Amino acid sequence: MLDPKGRVIMISGASRGIGRAIAENLYDKGYALSLGARDPGELRRALSGWAEDRLLCCRYVAEERASHEAWLAETLERYGRLDGLINNAGTTLPFSIEEGEEGELDRLWAINVKAPLFMTRLCLPQLKASGSGRIVNVSSLSGKRVRNENVAYNMTKYALMALTHGSRRLGWDAGVRVTALCPSFVRTDLTADATKIGRTEMIDPDDLAELAATVIALPNTAAVAELLVNCRLEDTL
Q1: Which residues contact 187 (CB under 8 A, 6 or more apart)?
Q2: Residue 139 banded pLDDT, cuts 50, 70, 90
């Protein structure tokens, strides 16, 4: 396993849910973190007990490309290096084949696909320079099978899987390893209105965070391309 000491990880959507759980897990393990959030001041206040030398909170808005570039620049100015990128920020909107406005579809693509694509493009040179760079794309089992009418969300998560495998090919020879983390129902705000399964039966974000931490720490010789995580039996899996 790679030693976390001195390794720098960027996490988008770190204010709550899966992103927050991953941040807490990696901080406890000794990583230095650069956390992207819409309100970095609020996030910094929430994490006031964390060591200053291992925490940087920056403004990151998935739909705003300029915030991507500024976030990376602030990270490099603080730490001088980058070893991992976790593309966690994402959203869902009701959009089916039969109903939904084009603007909603565009927003889903901007947040769920274009943002991780351009963050990957920006960060890849630094991750290659690391020699053991890591990218974790927080996808979904909705990127592996279609089980509901929310086709736009499924489409974006399928696209994120394609980005994952394209990034793996591009970065492999330079030691970059890329993993798609594909959970089903996770107990976060995003699933607050879900009715197919009870809250207590959903995946705990802390357990998902431990899986993310594991693939980040694995050596170059033990790469995991896709990690499918479920809380209920599915015949297709």
Answers
A1: 199, 202, 203, 204, 205
A2: very high
* Active site amino acids: 153
Between CA 123 and CA 89 the distance in angstroms is 16
What's the start-to-end Cα distance of the chain, in Å?
28
Q: What is the pTM of this model?
A: 0.95
Strand order in the sheet with 177-183: 55-59, 32-37, 8-12, 84-87, 134-138, 177-183, 226-229
Alpha-carbon distance of 75 to 14, in angstroms, equals: 15
Q: In the chain, pLDDT over 90 holds for what percent of residues?
A: 88
> What is d(CA 225, CA 215) in angstroms, rounded to the nearest whole number?
9
Rounded-to-integer distance, Cα 237 and Cα 230, Å: 9
Distances (CA, A) of 20 to 11, 183, 208: 9, 16, 11
Region 120-127 average pLDDT: 98
Confidence check: pLDDT of 199 > 90 = no
Is 70 exceeded by the pLDDT of residue 192? no
